[in-house]
Amino acid sequence: xxxxxxxxxxxxxxxxxxxxxxxxxxxxxxVSLVFAAIAIWLGWSLVNWALVNATFGAGQGDVCRENxxxxxxxSVVSARWRIVLFGLYPFExxxxxxLACAIMVIVAILSCVPWxxxxxxxxxxxxxxxxxxxxxxxxGLFGLPEVTEQNWGGLALTVFIFAAVVxxxxxxxxxxxxxxxxxxxxxxxxxxxxxxxxxxxxLLSIMFTFAIVLPFVLPGWAIGDKLYRVIAGYxxxxxxxxxxxxxxxxxxxxxxxxEAAKAxxxxxxxxxxxxxxxxxxxxxxxxxxxxxxxxFKETSLVTIIGFFDVMASGRAASGTAExxxxxxxxxxxxxxxxxxxxxxxxxxxxxxxxxxxxxTR
Amino acid sequence: xxxxxxxxxxxxxxxxxxxxxxxxxxxxxxTVLERGSLLCSGHNGSFLGFAEVDDQGTWKGVDIDLCRALxxxxxxxxxxxxEIVPISWAQRWPALQSGDIDVVIKVSGWTQSRDTELNxxxxxxxxxxxxxxxxxxxxxxxxxADLDGGTLCVGAGTSxxxxxxxxxxxKDIEAELLTFENGDELRNAYYExxxxxxxxxxxxxxxxxxxxxxxxxNHVILPDVIALEAEGIIVPEGDADWLDVQxxxxxxxxxxxxxGITSENIDEFKENPPSETIAKxxxxxxxxxxxxxxxxxxAYNMIKEVGNMAEIYDRNIGSGSPYDLPRGINALYxxxxxxxxxxxx
Lengths: 361, 345
Hints:
By secondary structure, chain A is mainly α.
C-alpha cells in the first residue's frame, strides 16, 4: 500500500509537527514536560538498575550480596541459566535438550517459508521435527541414555507442551468446528454443549482433573504418564476455543460459496478441504495467532501440578541460599524468554496477515 | 482359626522365634521393592534448605537427603533407585493416594484434619518447625524476655501473630506487635529498624538472615520457641509395614548420631562393633532388617550414604550450610532437643 498525500494539504516539518502536537498551548507544554520528565526518570532508573549499576559475570554473588553496585545482579543468570533452560535434565545430557529445542525452533522457522505450505510438506516437517525432538529428549535409542519425562524441565518442557498442545489441538479444533456446524441437530447441539462446558471451566481445574483425578477413574493401562494426560487435557481445552474461532471464520463466508460448490458436484470433503477451510483459516488468522500466543503463555500453569517448566525452574534457580536475593533478576530473565517467543510468534502472525492480505479482500 | 492364631502368637512370643517379617500383600513397601526405585516428593521450584536445586540441576536439602536415605536403605544405594518427582504443595496428598509418589517428605505439619479426614498416616516427626524471633546482634538480647518493652514484627492475620501474642502474655513480656500483610514488607520493616525483632518460621528466619543487607553476623536468632509445627513423613493410612520403615529409618539416623556413628567412621564401627546392639544395628548379626522385610545391612547402607541426622541437618540448614541455623529444639534430647532413637533389640 502506498500512501497518497493530497497535494492541497501542506505537510508540516518535523519541528512544526512536534510543536503543534505537544506544545501548542501553555497547558499542553506543562503536561508534555511533566510526562517527558517522568518517562525519562523511569527510563533512566531502569537503565541504571539493569545496566549501569548492575553486576555481571559468574561468581560475583558476594559482590551482589554486599550490594556494591546497587543494581541488578545478572550473575545469577550466568551461574544458573542451565537450570532455567533445562530444568532437572541430567547435567551431562543437557546438550540433547538444547539441540531438541533448537530443532523445534528451526522447524518453526521453516514452516514460515512458503515452500513448505502444502498439505503434504507441512505435516511431514512437523512430524519429523517432533519425532527428532522426542527421540533426543527421551533417549533409549541410538545409544542415548534414557531420560524419563519425569526429569524433563525448563524451556525444553515448555516448548514440548506448547508444540504438542497446538499440534494435537488444531486438527481436533477443525473436527469440533465441523461437528458444531453439522446439519444434524443432535450432533451440532451435543458439540455445542461440550464446547461450552469445557470453555466454562478454568484451565487450571481441567489440568488438575487430568493430572490427578483421572488416574483414580481410568483403568491402569489407559493412565499413561502424567505429562501426556495434561497435554491431552490442555489440547482439548485449546481445541474448544480454537473450534469457535474457526467456526467464526466459516460463518464469515457467504453461503453462496458452499452452494456453488455443491452445484459443481463437489463432495463434502472437497467442499471443506478446498473451499471452506482455506478461507475460514484466512479469516480466522488474527484470533488464531492470539489463541496460540495465549496457549504458549498459559503453559506456565503446569507448574501448579508439579511440572518443572521454565517458570518453576526459574524459581528453583533463584531458590537457594546463594541466590535467594536475586529473585527479581531471575523473573526478568524468564520474562525475557517468554517475550522472545511470544514476540516472534506475533511478528510471524503479522507477516502471515500481510502475505494473505487478511485486512483486504 | 482365631484360637490358632492366638496360640501361634503366644508360642512365638514365648519362644522368641523371630521369623522373617511378613510384609502385607498390598503394602507400598512391596510395590517399591518390586519396581526397584522409590518415587519421592520433590518440589515445583524450591523450598530453602529442604529442597533446592544445585548448579548441576541435582536436588539437595533435608527432605531430599531423607529420600536418599530411604532409598539407600531399601536398595543399598540411592543412585539409580530414586526418583524425585517434582510436585506442588496442593498436589502432595492426591499424588500420594494415586501412586505418583510413594511417600511425602515435604516439610508437612502433622495436623488433625490431615491425619483423620485425608486418610494419611504420619511417621514420628523428624523436624520441629519452630517459630522463633530474630533480633539485631547489637541489642544484646539473648531471649525473647530481653525484648521487654520493644517492638516485634509479625505477619498479619497468621497463626504466628496469635501464637506470639499468647506467648508474650503467658511469659508476662510487654512488647508491641507490628503486623505486616506482605512477607517482603515484613522483612524490610525489620531491616530498616522499625522493630527490634522479627518473628517467623525458623528456617525462613535463617534464610532472611543470610540476605540481611548489613550482613548475617549482625543478626541473631533467639532460641525461644514461640510456637511449633511437627513435620513428619506421610504414607497412606492402613499401610503399617511401609510406615514402620519410615519410623525405623528416622530412628536409625538418630541412633547413629547418639552412638557417634557417621558416614566417615561407619566402616570402623562395622569392623569393630563396640557393643552387641551396634553389631545388630549395622547388620553384623541378623535381625535389624529382616523384621522390616529389608536387608540386614540397610541402616549401614543408609548412613554410609547420607550420614546420621546431625550430618543431614548440618549439611543442609545447620553450621555446614549458608543458613547456619542452630539445631536447638531439633537436637537429640541429651543436647537440649526433643528427638530420640527407639530401642534396638
